[in-house]
Amino acid sequence: MLGVLVLTMFTLLGAQLSSASTNEVNCDLRQLSSNTTSANCDFRKHDHCLVCFHGLDDEWRSGGEHVRTLVLCHWPAETFDPHSTLQTFPSLQKLIMANGNLTEFTSTFPAEARSIEVVNITGTRLQTLPDQIFANLSKLKVLDLRNNTFGEIDVAAFDVPSLRHVYLSGNPLRCTEDTTWILNQEKGSLSRKIADKDNLRCTAPYEGRPLVQVVEIIKTLKEECTRTVCDCELVYVVGQGGKHIQRQLMAFASVNCSHRDLTEMPGFLPANTTTLRLNGNKINDLTPLTTNPVYRGVIDLYLDNNLIESIVQLEGSSWVDRFRLLSLRGNKLTDLPTYALANVLQHNGNAVSLYLANNPWRCDCLFTPGFQDLLIKYTSLVKDVNDIRCSPMNGDENSGKTIRDLTRIEICTSPDEDPLLHPLDVLNIILASLIFLIIGKLLYDYWSFKKTGKLPWIVAKIP
Q1: What is the pLDDT of residues 265-278, one digit of tens each?
Q2: Second label for 128, Cα 20 to 30 Å away, from 57, 275, 430, 451?
Q3: Buried (b) or exposed (e) across 370-393, using 16+ Cβ within 10 A?
């Protein structure tokens, strides 16, 4: 009984292997066991299957009326002409091409091949299909194009009414707005026919990310972007495959609203906006960063060349505690709360870049020393520290100078003061002189007491 069961299992296994939709593994095994690269064909009469390696040999170039399955392993040429090659195989029901140098089909399938039900082209460098290539295959049911080099899919090429199952995994598909056909769930659409949809993956810049979910994100971003005056782009998607892939994806979108003549920050941003560019507008109020929830995910903010005069409203806000990049170049900032900013930079583990150049910074003894200390301490974060300069003013000796390099004397000395005789310096000289006099008097009194035994005059007079 056990022997019969084992025999039955092997029989079923053999049947499955012989009727497999592709012979890619067999092609690989045959290639490894043979050193020849010349055309070699073998016809199996029991299943009417013709298996050829490295092309068709002379015996089969004229075709074969009894061949129902044609397997072409390691096709040697870069092109394949279905019209001339297959029209002499009138009984063909299945075409399999596995591995090889194939990059292009040069014609459509001929009318003589109308009986074909299965086409498997796998493991080649094929990346495009001619228009109407399958138009004559009125019985085509299965199309397997796995593991080729398709970057984009021409939906029209798959418009075959009889087609039921399409396999596309293993191709470096580009996830763009042109790939939104994958979301079409109408009856008869190509998307409904794809059997391995969950296995489709994007190529760079979303390398390895699930195609369907990424395209959904791109489509949503495009639709939401129409509600703004900005340009939107999906920059990156983080996440790997898995059972709950959709929950694991995290998108990073860049929104560019530069030079749109905006007078205030946008009230709406597309979901997943992490980078926002607002350069070259007329914005002077940063309050929306603290009040509008659409800015919670914005970590890189560019506000160059606007009319911003103060960032005091950001003090104590949650946004400054999590930003990664803040660029305020070319605004109207004269000062800022240095203590609060230093505290933020100390506790914000995300902060990477801060740009403050080309602002009319006030250089005086009240603001500049603390600002200078901040610039020196966080030189690695303030990327344009060498371009942060004092406001250009006529008659000001510090006009246009780099703030980080100023000395305290340059900062705190008025132009009408003599820097060589500052009142503080005079006081320091007097105090130093008194200290030396007192030390000298103590040493003299000690020497006099040791020599004469007399107490100093001041001590003698103390009752």
Answers
A1: 999 999 999 999 99
A2: 57
A3: bbbebbeebeebbbebeebbbeee
β partners of residue 95: 70, 119
β-pair partners for 232: 255
Residue 152 burial (10 A CB sphere; 0-12, 13-18, 19+): middle
Pairing of strands 40-44, 49-53: antiparallel
Strand partners, 69: 49, 94
Q: Cα Rg for the chain, rounded, in angstroms?
A: 40
**Amino acid at site 362:** R
As to burial, measured by CB atoms within 10 angstroms (0-12 exposed, 13-18 middle, 19+ buried), residue 292 is middle
Q: What is the pLDDT of residues 337-389, one digit of tens each?
A: 999 999 999 999 999 999 999 999 999 989 999 999 999 999 999 999 999 99
Is residue 146 a contact partner of residue 196, using CB atoms and an 8 Å limit? yes
Q: Residue type for 169, please?
A: S
The verdict on whether omega for the bond into residue 360 sits within 30 degrees of 0, i.e. cis, is: no
Tell me the whole-structure pTM to 2 decimals. 0.77
At 238, list the tokens. Answer: 């983080």
Strands (E) across 21-163 are located at 40-44, 49-53, 69-75, 79-80, 94-100, 104-105, 118-122, 142-144
Separation CA 375–CA 370 (nearest Å): 9
Instruction: Name which of 8, 82, 73, 70 is nearest 39 in CA terms.
Output: 73
d(CA 314, CA 341): 9
Q: Letter for the amino acid at 277?
A: R
Query: Does 69 score more than 90 pLDDT?
Result: yes
C-beta of residue 147 within 8 angstroms of C-beta of residue 125: no
Close Cβ partners of 196 (under 8 Å, ≥ 6 residues apart): 146, 167, 168, 169
Rounded-to-integer distance, Cα 156 and Cα 177, Å: 17
Angle between helix axes 368-377 and 338-347 (nearest 10 degrees) is 20
